[in-house]
């Protein structure tokens, strides 16, 4: 959940998508500026945090990089519950991963969190020659479903920072500062309690 | 038991033989004998059936009830097949033979020549006692008759390297046996190439059939789930064949345990809807192979829990492979550990050597964060335990530690950052997921916090920060990395015994952990036999504390510093352990064996088990003296090498 302070906020961000789509690679590029050609499969979910500054606000992302394997799908809610933003990643050279991405979008929409910022990332744009998912197709799908679409490449770092900064910008900025819930305690000494105590 | 139509079985095994093509080892024909031996176009198979599922499965234990059959029960080994003789494979032929029940079942080695193929038919009894055939001597027996003259291979004096071995490790390890000199003397451990090897092979390729040890997991419908080598998709036909064999026997209300075909052993294990099969020519004891299949199943449960069985209830044709995506490394590293990690057959864990105070500090750090949310806290260095806390009235089984540490260390992604993953601890509770918070504190040291609460990540993250800062402040992390660099017990450091080397104050020799260098420089054993191991030709030992479920193994000394020698030693221990446990007719208290590679000594008491390997020319009496000294030594340094006190197994 995005929590707004004076000038900084904390936001939980989750990456979802098919295995091998490049979720971990995107995060590692964003957080550590690294890229590995043969990234090992993630087990469960890996946790990262990274702070970015947009428009005089700093946003501290708490990033959950989930494993794409099927066996973890039923556990995904554990990671996306309460998220302020989600990046759904697919591999532009793999049509199945796009189909899988659409399912993730549906699943998140069913959660009914209207404030959730969703991004669709078509990863591996450096492999454009092997492209199976057309930009227009993904763009249209994203617009229809209220997502924003970016084609990224963790390998060449293209659009990776842009993706996260765009999310930071879209996070609900002027979230009305809620009156603090719970009761207000006054400074007055609790006279009555003192009177009623047994050993006064 | 064997009333079914033999013709069907012939077909089954013919299929297996065709798929797996055992020739030339099986390129021999003999006339059909009894129902328990199967003649196929490619060879004969001897079958053993049994009813007990989980009990100790040492083959000859099936023998007494059908002693009559055993005499006729045939397995065959083609001697024209080039190295097909199992005994010569490891160079342990014709030393001294010891047969239990020798009077009852004299070995009937009767060379015969059938259809132009020369065959040797072994009495089944003798074949499967091959544990003991390897020159085993019962301690109480006639050990004086050891024939030193049979030993042809002698270690070269300088570097202890032994010439003239057959390459033993090469094909099983995928040909990767690059050795280097470093602190870590365990060469085999470093052999593992992550990921699946030989991905594009299948049962039609000769290279695939040449691998020494195959493991298969398949569903009861015959769908492949995992294969050590080759592509599971392409092995669908082979899987179906295995399934056909198993279900054929099952349909008769029986279960198939074991097939021996030439020097190949096929071991079957049924775990509900999951079938596990190993096919190996490594000549390991059946008991050890069964345990390996058991661990493989445990690893499957650790990833998926027992609820995977529900998938098969709903749909018998369920394909489990997608659910195991990305876990090839976990399985390949587990199978690799079957050839270097003694925990795989000892059913115990080992600790990182650490001074008692440092270990206590580490334990205190873990105890400090133990609360209701925390089920277990584990501090590991590689696969060695530094400290362990069970916060509630729960105990962590050594097998769970073994499988969990394999799972964590084989998954590279845990090293990148902190992770929170569902895992199942099969011995603790095989039906539910618990959640593991995993974080590497440095390159080797790994903290694993296990909780039942799926929401506890941030709490565990705080716990980790507390543990980490405590370990930094108390310099325990530094002690840990020093210990990793220093390694474990070395046979060269064995304190001199008073009787042999004159009286030397013991106190000077004990402090291995605190001041490893001091004890190294004063070790009399090193001076006595430079470069050839420790005193009296001691090469290596394993000491297992029965009470603590922990073991300590020495570092490999110079005569055992080739991958081949280490693997041979590992297999020898494995056999020794099997022959000390669950052997029919009572277990031995003590064993002394000599073959051309080692003298092996095993000693089992109520408190500990001790296994040691010596130079093949070592004398028995001095070997026994040295064993006593090693045991005394280990008791002296027990606090540094074992995790004693607050044992989680004694709640």
Automatic annotation (TrEMBL), chain A:
Pfam families: Ras (PF00071)
PROSITE patterns membership: RAB (PS51419), RAS (PS51421), RHO (PS51420)
Annotated InterPro entries: P-loop_NTPase (IPR027417), Small_GTP-bd (IPR005225), Small_GTPase (IPR001806)
Key word Chloroplast present: yes
GO biological process, one term: protein transport
Membrane topology recorded in Swiss-Prot or TrEMBL: Lipid-anchor
Cellular component annotations (GO), alphabetically ordered: cytoplasm; endomembrane system
Region named Disordered: 176-200
Subcellular location: Endomembrane system
SMART domains the record matches: RAB, RAN, RAS, RHO
Protein name (record): Uncharacterized protein
Automatic annotation (TrEMBL), chain B:
The organism of origin for this protein: Adiantum capillus-veneris (Maidenhair fern)
Region spans: Disordered: 68-114
Top-level taxon in the UniProt lineage: Eukaryota
Name of this chain's protein: Vacuolar fusion protein MON1 homolog
Positions of the FUZ/MON1/HPS1 first Longin domain: 213-334
Residues annotated as domain FUZ/MON1/HPS1 third Longin: 537-637
Domain FUZ/MON1/HPS1 second Longin: 373-467
Cited InterPro entries: FUZ/MON1/HPS1_longin_1, FUZ/MON1/HPS1_longin_2, FUZ/MON1/HPS1_longin_3, Mon1
Record field: transmembrane: none
């Amino acid at each position: 959940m995005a929590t707004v302070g004076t000038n900084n906020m904390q936001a939980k961000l989750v990456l979802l998508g098919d295995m091998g789509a490049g979720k971990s690679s995107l995060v590692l590029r964003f957080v550590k500026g690294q890229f590995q050609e043969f990234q090992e499969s993630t087990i469960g979910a890996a946790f990262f945090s990274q702070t970015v500054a947009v428009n005089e606000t700093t946003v501290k992302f708490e990033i959950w990089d989930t494993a794409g394997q099927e066996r973890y799908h039923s556990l995904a809610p554990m990671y996306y519950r309460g998220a302020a933003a989600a990046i759904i990643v697919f591999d532009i050279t793999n049509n199945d991963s796009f189909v899988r991405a659409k399912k993730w979008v549906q699943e998140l929409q069913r959660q009914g969190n209207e404030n959730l910022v969703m991004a669709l990332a078509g990863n591996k744009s450096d492999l454009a020659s092997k492209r199976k998912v057309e930009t227009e197709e993904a763009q249209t799908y994203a617009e229809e479903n209220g997502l924003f679409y970016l084609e990224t490449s963790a390998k060449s770092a293209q659009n990776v920072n842009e993706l996260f900064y765009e999310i930071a910008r879209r996070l609900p900025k002027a979230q009305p500062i809620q009156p603090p819930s719970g009761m207000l305690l006054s400074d007055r000494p609790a006279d009555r309690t003192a009177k009623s105590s047994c050993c006064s | 038991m064997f009333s079914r139509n033999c013709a069907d079985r012939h077909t089954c095994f013919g299929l297996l033989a065709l798929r797996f093509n055992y020739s030339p080892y099986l390129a021999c024909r003999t006339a059909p004998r009894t129902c328990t031996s199967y003649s196929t176009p490619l060879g004969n198979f001897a079958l053993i059936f049994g009813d007990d599922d989980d009990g100790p499965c040492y083959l000859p234990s099936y023998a007494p009830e059908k002693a009559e059959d055993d005499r006729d029960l045939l397995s065959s080994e083609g001697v024209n097949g080039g190295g097909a003789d199992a005994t010569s494979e490891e160079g342990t032929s014709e030393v001294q033979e010891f047969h239990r029940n020798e009077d009852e079942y004299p070995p009937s080695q009767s060379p015969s020549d059938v259809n132009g193929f020369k065959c040797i038919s072994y009495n089944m009894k003798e074949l499967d006692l091959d544990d003991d055939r390897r020159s085993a001597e019962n301690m109480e027996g006639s050990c004086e008759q050891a024939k030193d003259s049979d030993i042809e291979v002698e270690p070269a004096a300088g570097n202890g390297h032994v010439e003239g071995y057959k390459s033993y490790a090469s094909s099983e390890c995928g040909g990767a046996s690059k050795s280097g000199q470093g602190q870590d003397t365990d060469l085999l451990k470093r052999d593992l190439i992550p990921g699946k090897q030989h991905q594009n092979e299948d049962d039609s390729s000769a290279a695939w059939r040449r691998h020494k040890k195959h493991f298969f997991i398949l569903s009861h419908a015959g769908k492949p789930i995992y294969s050590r080598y080759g592509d599971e998709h392409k092995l669908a036909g082979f899987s179906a064949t295995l399934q056909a064999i198993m279900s054929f026997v099952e349909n008769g209300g029986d279960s198939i345990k074991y097939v021996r075909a030439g020097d190949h052993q096929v071991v079957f294990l049924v775990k509900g809807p999951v079938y596990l099969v190993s096919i190996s020519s490594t000549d390991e004891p059946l008991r050890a192979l069964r345990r390996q299949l058991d661990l493989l199943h445990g690893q499957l449960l650790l990833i998926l829990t027992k609820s995977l069985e529900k998938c098969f209830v709903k749909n018998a044709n369920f394909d489990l492979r997608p659910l195991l995506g990305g876990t090839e490394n976990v399985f390949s590293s587990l199978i690799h550990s079957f050839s270097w990690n003694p925990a795989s057959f000892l059913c115990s864990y080992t600790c990182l050597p650490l001074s008692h105070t440092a270990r206590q500090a580490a334990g205190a750090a873990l105890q400090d964060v133990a609360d209701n949310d925390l089920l277990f806290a584990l501090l590991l260095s590689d696969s060695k335990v530094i400290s362990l806390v069970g916060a509630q009235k729960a105990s962590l089984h050594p097998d769970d530690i073994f499988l969990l540490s394999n799972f964590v260390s084989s998954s590279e992604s845990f090293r990148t950052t902190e992770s929170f993953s569902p895992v199942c601890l099969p011995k603790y509770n095989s039906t539910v997921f618990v959640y593991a918070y995993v974080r590497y504190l440095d390159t080797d040291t790994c903290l694993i916090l296990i909780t039942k609460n799926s929401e506890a990540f941030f709490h565990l993250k705080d716990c980790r920060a507390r543990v980490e800062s405590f370990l930094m402040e108390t310099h325990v992390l530094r002690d840990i990395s020093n210990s990793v660099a220093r390694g474990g017990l070395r046979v060269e450091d064995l304190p001199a015994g008073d009787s042999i080397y004159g009286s030397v104050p013991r106190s000077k020799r004990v402090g291995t952990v605190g001041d490893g260098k001091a004890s190294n420089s004063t070790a009399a054993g090193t001076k006595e036999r430079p470069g050839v191991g420790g005193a009296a030709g001691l090469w290596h030992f394993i000491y297992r504390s029965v009470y603590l479920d922990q073991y300590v193994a020495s570092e490999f000394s110079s005569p055992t510093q080739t991958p081949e020698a280490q693997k041979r030693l590992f297999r020898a221990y494995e056999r020794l352990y099997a022959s000390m446990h669950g052997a029919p007719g009572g277990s031995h208290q003590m064993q002394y064996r000599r073959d051309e590679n080692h003298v092996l000594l095993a000693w089992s008491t109520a408190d500990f088990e001790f296994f040691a390997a010596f130079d093949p020319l070592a004398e028995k009496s001095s070997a026994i003296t040295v064993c006593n000294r090693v045991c005394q030594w280990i008791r002296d340094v027990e606090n540094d090498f074992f995790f004693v006190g607050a044992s989680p197994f004694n709640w």
